[in-house]
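Milestone 3.1: sequence recovery, worked example.
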């Protein structure tokens, strides 16, 4: 989820991924070739050897060894088969901007790495999937056109076809299975069963799937060679890394820094006040206290020692001006709304966790109730989203104990919820409501059986209804169709029943729609409506 304005770029140490960006807003192909030269092809064994020598890991969050991905795809292809190289530019994290920066300002470095891998694997094509908005998508389409024009004029650019696919923007769009589904023209949500892209990905072919920074790092590794590449950074995790620093206490930026840099130095560069804590690793990450920040080191190993996960390099300091518990509740509500809604933990568990968090902000409920609700969703989801949300919530409960005590004793900590945690600015998707013709309803109770989470029966067996979110529209229609008395119909909650739009909610960032999982200002689930077109927005192909 990329902001409309690409953030400024800062660096600590030598420029690699950001080389040239202090002189050019965007590096076109001639400028890129002046800096990095023409990419020489490498064999598969060479790339695997290079990646193993520097222990190159994926930079999308999971830190999976890149050499193992290459080998897995090669083994799946066998002799004479086809494969695809897929670039994950679908930055689902609202607090991350490094994909936007690379695709908008330095797209050719990303494409160089992907083309290197494609040539080594003998891939059919390179596919770049982005949910980065018009600017990023236009930049990569222009980069593809620049390469085509260079070949037409006698240049030596690779002729591996490159296809750009714009997909629907949402938090889970960058999950591997969801991305493959979207590229294949299906609904862009994680599959219910784990499916390895290396075995079956784009068009059912073995697919090498990594994010933009990973491919950019591969291009640099091939350019420098392992020995020079490892001249900076730590011995176990050589090279540089991209960090996105944002939040209410920082001058937002994407920072390139060698691994081994102190987290406190990065925050000082951004003139950031820590306040009650710093979120590390994004909205599936964990909070570090002000004390832990002072000794934390920017590396996978360093963050693990501090009690966090580096993930995709997201750093969000809170500062002192906002209610930290309220900010955590905002994020929990957002994550509940952004789920795929295809399993119990997402449909029921995450909304309950979000409501309990918001109750806690208002001085009601209890920490124990939230922990019980979290235990219900952990390790039971169809994808990692419930587990990641649970990790974030539990970390907030541990980190903001004093804040929670104030809310329970006084109803507030005295600070407003300023909404400093980055959130996408979107119009909410419509919600729906079930309406009943009471002259027909005789209390069969079938609607409550079909939609137990949204329909409750009173002591006499008659129903009362909660608002239906969009991802439950199919099930709501089924309940209407199966009502034995034909007493139900489905209407939109966005109007008054006569086509007039409902008034927009106002108030603090924590004001919730009590019968759903959403709060004012957050986005509703962005799943394709029943009967609508697939979630692929645009396609462009170049050879």
């Amino acid at each position: 989820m990329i902001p409309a304005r690409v953030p400024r770029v800062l660096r600590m140490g030598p420029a690699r991924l950001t080389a040239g960006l202090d002189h050019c807003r965007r590096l076109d192909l001639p400028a890129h070739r002046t800096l990095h030269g023409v990419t020489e092809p490498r064999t598969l064994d060479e790339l695997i050897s290079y990646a193993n020598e520097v222990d190159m890991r994926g930079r999308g969050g999971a830190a999976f060894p890149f050499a193992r991905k290459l080998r897995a795809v090669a083994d799946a292809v066998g002799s004479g088969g086809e494969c695809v190289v897929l670039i994950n530019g679908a930055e689902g994290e609202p607090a991350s901007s490094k994909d936007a920066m690379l695709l908008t300002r330095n797209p050719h470095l990303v494409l160089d790495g992907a083309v290197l891998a494609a040539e080594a694997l003998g891939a059919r094509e390179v596919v770049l999937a982005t949910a980065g908005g018009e600017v990023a998508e236009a930049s990569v389409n222009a980069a593809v056109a620049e390469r085509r024009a260079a070949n037409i004029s006698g240049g030596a650019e690779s002729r591996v076809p490159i296809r750009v696919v714009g997909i629907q923007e949402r938090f889970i769009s960058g999950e591997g299975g969801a991305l493959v589904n979207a590229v294949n023209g299906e609904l862009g949500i994680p599959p219910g069963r784990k499916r390895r892209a290396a075995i079956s990905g784009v068009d059912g072919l073995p697919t090498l799937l990594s994010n933009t920074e990973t491919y950019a790092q591969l291009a640099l590794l091939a350019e420098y060679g392992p020995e020079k590449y490892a001249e900076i950074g730590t011995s176990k995790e050589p090279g540089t890394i991209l960090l996105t620093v944002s939040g209410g206490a920082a001058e937002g930026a994407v920072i390139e820094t060698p691994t081994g840099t102190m987290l406190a130095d990065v925050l000082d560069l951004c003139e950031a006040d820590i306040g009650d804590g710093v979120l590390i690793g994004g909205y599936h990450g964990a909070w570090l206290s002000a004390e832990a920040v002072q000794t934390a080191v920017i590396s996978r190993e360093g963050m693990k020692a501090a009690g966090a996960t580096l993930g995709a390099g997201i750093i969000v300091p809170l500062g002192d001006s906002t209610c930290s518990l309220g900010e955590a509740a905002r994020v929990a509500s957002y994550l509940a709304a952004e789920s795929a809604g295809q399993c119990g933990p997402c449909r029921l568990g995450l909304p309950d966790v979000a409501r309990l968090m918001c109750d806690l902000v208002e001085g009601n409920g209890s920490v124990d109730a939230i922990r019980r609700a979290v235990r219900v969703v952990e390790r039971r989801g169809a994808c990692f989203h419930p587990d990641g949300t649970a990790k974030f919530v539990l970390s907030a409960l541990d980190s903001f104990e004093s804040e929670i005590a104030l809310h329970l004793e006084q109803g507030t900590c005295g600070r407003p919820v300023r909404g400093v945690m980055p959130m996408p600015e979107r119009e909410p998707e419509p919600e729906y409501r079930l309406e009943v013709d009471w002259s027909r309803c005789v209390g069969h109770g079938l609607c409550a059986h079909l939609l137990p989470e949204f329909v409750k029966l009173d002591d006499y067996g008659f129903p009362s209804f909660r608002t239906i979110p969009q991802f439950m529209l199919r099930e709501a229609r089924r309940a209407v169709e199966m009502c034995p008395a034909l007493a139900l119909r489905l209407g939109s909650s966005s109007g008054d029943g006569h086509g007039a739009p409902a008034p927009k909610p106002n108030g603090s960032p924590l004001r919730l729609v009590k019968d759903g999982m959403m709060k004012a200002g957050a986005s509703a689930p962005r799943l394709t409506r029943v009967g609508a077109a697939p979630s692929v927005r645009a396609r462009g192909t170049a050879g």
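The chain has four domains: 27-229, 240-317, 321-427+505-530, 432-492. Confidence is low (pLDDT under 50) at residues 495-543.
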